[in-house]
Amino acid sequence: MKTTDTALRIRDLTKRFGAKTAVNQLNVSVDRGEIFGLVGPNGAGKSTTMRMLVDALRPTSGSIRVLGQNPRDNTALRRHIGYLPGEFLTVPSLTGKGLLKHFAALNPVADSAYHDSLIRRLGAELNRPISKLSKGNKQKIGLIQAFMHQPDLLILDEPTSGLDPLVQQVFLELLLEAGGRGQTVFLSSHILSEIQHAAHRVGVVKDGSLLALASVAELRDAAGQQMHASLEGLVAHQLRSQLARQLPASTLTAREEGNRTLVRGTLRDPVAALLSLLGTYTVQELNLEKPDLEESILHYYQDGTSTDTPAGSVTAHKRGSHAL
Ligand SMILES: Nc1ncnc2c1ncn2[C@@H]1O[C@H](COP(=O)(O)OP(=O)(O)OP(=O)(O)O)[C@@H](O)[C@H]1O
């Protein structure tokens, strides 16, 4: 399909259900070949957004371009999309094989070896009625139908829901391979380690609104570093005033224990500033640790919008580096 370099362009997208605003003025663009993760607490509006992208729901206002096209009533576009809904509902009496045949009639499979490898790698059970399958085994069929025609765009709503850890690993490999082939992926997940491993960029939504949009690396950098140091002597009093003066962006505490002073908290000032301050003391131990994605964005999941992370530093709309 001949389209622009932008796989998805979402502008001022809003969806209301009566008085409830499920998606509120959402703006996101996703490049071709990019893996984009949409994350946020339950009820944030992730599934609603995805359903609008595949024309399963009509927006209240705003515009959507999928592979350069308006998804509304655009049946030709569907062949270029692989969609895994949050709840993969099927005709219960159908077997996995029957269902995949049905999907293949809609979205022809060009590479049968790839189709067969998906079945093998995911360990899908194809000969039993779908209604008799466990949640995870149903999900495997859902994943196969989304991936099997190697669509330009994969829209995956909580794709690893119900999968055991080994199959989750296979899914991650499939995702990275799809990205490597130039396919675009727009996925949601509550498993933030999965997003950290696979996504180029992440959008954090809550109550329908986009709170942050940045690369995984930018989100982790903005969260600062967890710092822990042990200094010789009882120096907490003088240290506290130096910390406040010389490391104003950080939240570090100092307390005395035995004949040493322990400093810990989140460092958001340059490491050089920390080292210059500590250089005037005898440092027994110093640890600096970058938080993972989950620790970096968990505050968005809590009630109220935390101001702990400087919001301005994670709203960069540029494409970040692949954090693996
Ligand atoms: N058909 C509907 N009618 C009324 N309200 C709806 C409908 N679909 C979704 N909502 C509401 O819209 C909000 C967003 O729901 P959505 O399913 O998009 O959230 P989500 O981010 O996918 O959540 P989760 O992580 O729990 O799957 C929720 O408050 C939900 O109750």
From TrEMBL:
Keywords: ATP-binding, Nucleotide-binding, Transport. It comes from the Bacteria. GO terms for molecular function: ATP binding. PROSITE patterns: ABC_TRANSPORTER_1 (PS00211), ABC_TRANSPORTER_2 (PS50893). Residues 8-232 form the ABC transporter domain. Residues 304-324 are annotated as: Disordered. The keyword Transport applies. InterPro entries: AAA+_ATPase, ABC_transporter-like_ATP-bd, ABC_transporter-like_CS, ABC_Transporter_VariousFunc, P-loop_NTPase. CDD domains: ABC_DR_subfamily_A. PANTHER family: ABC TRANSPORTER ATP-BINDING PROTEIN ALBC-RELATED (PTHR42939:SF1). This is ABC transporter ATP-binding protein.
